[in-house]
Amino acid sequence: MDFISHWETERHNLPFAIDGVVIKVDRYDQQERLGLTSKSPRWAISFKFETERVRTRLKEITYQVGRTGAVTPVANLEPIQLGGTTVKRASLHNADQILRLGLIDGDYVYVEKGGEIIPKVVGVDESERAVVTDLFSQQSSSFPTHCLECATELVREEGEAIHYCPNRLTCPPQVKGRIVHFISRKAMNIDGLGSETVVQLVEAGLVVDPSSLYDLKEEDLLPLDRMAKKSVDKLLAGIEASKSISFERVLFGLGIRYVGETVAKKLARSLGNLDAIMRAEKEVLVEVDEIGERIADSVILYFADEGNINFVRRLGEAGLRLAVQEIVGATNKLDGASIVVSGVFEKHDRVGIKKLIEMHGGKVSSSISKKTSFIVAGDKMGPSKKEKAEKLEITILSEDEFLSKIA
After folding, report:
1. pLDDT tens readout for residues 259-280
2. 396 contact partners, CB below 8 Å, separation of at least 6
3. Which of 78, 115, 221, 252 has the most crowded Cβ, counting Cβ within 10 A?
């Protein structure tokens, strides 16, 4: 705590911004015992310093539509210095926050940076209200009822805080946003194609959804601004190369609500191909590791839309991979097995052992439990893991024994 207290004040003298201190357990055996989730280790935690708060005037609230159709209110502010940057806009998240704060254009508001990165409005200076009136009734009628981009009536599902524009197919920011997501690095990673070019292609009428990218020809692109022969060749080559991208990344690129990178990987590896995912009932989907009812409902809703079905069919016709590719040497010898990896190995590193487990149908687990099938143990296996394995009577295999098992 003395270290934290020191840097809480001293951080302002650093030539860069920091928002806290990360505290880590530094013994490797204890790190292994604590384990990790898919996103973060359980042996490290961050202590966040108190966030800086500033006061400025709210000029007006505007609304933007994202690629999923979510309508997000944005506070446009008189510029103010906060955390080393000039802040002009801040997130308001949803209609409920506007109502809770009772915001009116002209109010003086307090702004913080969430996680020292994203500015957000956290309060109103009640001593200087812009207008004295029934704030809640005024603001409840000010949130738009129709999409400001395509005039479609907005919907708000029960239990949801966000308003959505349901017009996925022709709402301009949704069309552009879906294409930008589709070409992103973690999805199709199309070289030579950025967000500015996507806007240009959509506005020129050359692209209406991601599948349209595969219909583009040199003669379509050369007449456009900033499109010389060299850049056109690079773009078309990038589009062609994306046809070899793995199915799990294609699935992520579809932009199904709640289906992120990890969920797409789980669905692809469990069900194998897009047809199986499209036909899967809710009971089948929730059986997949890490897939809950909300994600299952979202997948079913996506493929209940005829427009989405036609879209993915066009992707298949364009030559994209809509099924998991067979891996050379892969088997199902470890099918259904939950395996823990611990220690240091001679012939493979830990990552290599884990890849072999997945390649042969097994599942890698970070912690030992009654469900653990066996442990692959190398040198320096944590004593606590060994003790727990012996207590639960779980088999411990050496690296050579494990390799023999999958040979």
Report:
1. 998 899 889 988 999 999 999 9
2. 374, 375, 377, 381, 386, 389
3. 252
